Amino acid sequence: MASASAARAAMRPRVPPASRGSAARYRVAPRASPRAAATRAARFVRAKSQSSSVVSASTSEPACARDDTGKMVCVEETKGVVFPSNLRCALQVIVPTPEVDDPAYSLSDYMRLPVDQYVGIELPMGAQMKRVPGSDSLFQLEIPGLKFLSLEVKPVVRVRVRLIDDGEVVQTWTGQRGEPGGKSVAFREEEAAAIAAAEEKAREAEANGDDASAIEIPVATPMGRPEREDVALIGPCVLIEAISCRVEGKVVEELGVNDLFVFRGTTCFRWRSAGDDSLAGPPLRRTGPGGEEEEPSKMVVGKAREDESVIAGWADIGVGVDPPGAFALLPQSFAEKVGDAVMRTTLKALQTVFLKGLGADYQRWASDAEYRAAREVAAKEAAAEAARELGDRERASSAA
């Protein structure tokens, strides 16, 4: 009875509840419709008042970073929303990186440098990485010309890049395992019971001649693909997390794409180096030393000997989407398969080239004293500029 009621209820459009209290357990992404943008906008108006105080467990940086367009979809504000279609991509890239003889300039020392080094690493496909003004850990990644069937878009992703120190633990998202849509069996059962109770109340009201339309019936949350929010990563590593995103393109505004998707992504860089004895340690894994076991990556690019110093990167990307326009007519399995392939091709190119560039930059840093000195000066100047920009913004905000 409860499951049948839940299935019928899932067909009814419903605006998500106005609070993040108990009713918010039934939040669901809006279906593609003329009011989709208004529905998404209303949800962000409600969440905006909370976003300024939401911070990561291990950093004081805000958990959301919008740009001047005001169209960035904030990851923190969309946690728990399950979309009808879900794209996934995960891969591991291994790049052998020989260390220089001088132990003062090991690969471990290099990987622990300030994260502003990533701006200077070249990317393929015309992609660009730029530092976000006013921050020394936020960067903006732009990838032009990404094509999904006949739709060409330009993703603009703001990411937080930070060094996770030895033994430090952070909770991260993964789209490779977990419960469907990240919802437990207990959640699904409670939700089905609530839907059945609301429908029964509506039937009773109708039988008594009352207005049954005034009774709100929750929408069943889509199943979605597996995901988790609580995977612990243990340092040392460099962690890159998507915190906000938007897409640009000729028909993006017409289709309301920015109102119909959410982006999730984490990338973890680890290393094996003589500088911190990790070269003689256990094999590298995404969750870190002592971390929980995971299935080996299904897609691995590159390889290295067990006694070889390396940089290794694990990327885990997910996109939830309510297909807009004619795309809503495509079979879900087909749309997800095509989307997975597009993401996989793009991610493989980006991460492979980036890590090879990082390895080459290490070689130059380790062997060129002038380059090291220039890098140190540039890092200090970037930090000072970030502090000035942040001060200017705070003064402008106070004046307003």
- Total count of strands: 12
Uncertain parts: 1-62
Q: How many DSSP H or I helices?
A: 7
Beta fraction: 15-25%
**Alpha-beta content class:** alpha+beta
Compute the CA-based radius of gyration.
23 Å
Shape: globular
CATH topology: Alpha-D-Glucose-1,6-Bisphosphate, Chain A, domain 4
Question: Can you identify the CATH superfamily?
Answer: START domain
Q: Domains counted in the coordinates: how many?
A: 1
Q: What's the CATH architecture name?
A: 2-Layer Sandwich
CATH class: Alpha Beta
**What composes the largest sheet?**
10 strands, mixed
Order of helices and strands: HHEEHEEEEEHEEHEEEHH
Q: What share of the residues lie within helices?
A: 25-40%
End-to-end distance, in Å?
56 Å
Q: List the quaternary state of the chains.
A: single chain
Nearest-integer average pLDDT? 81
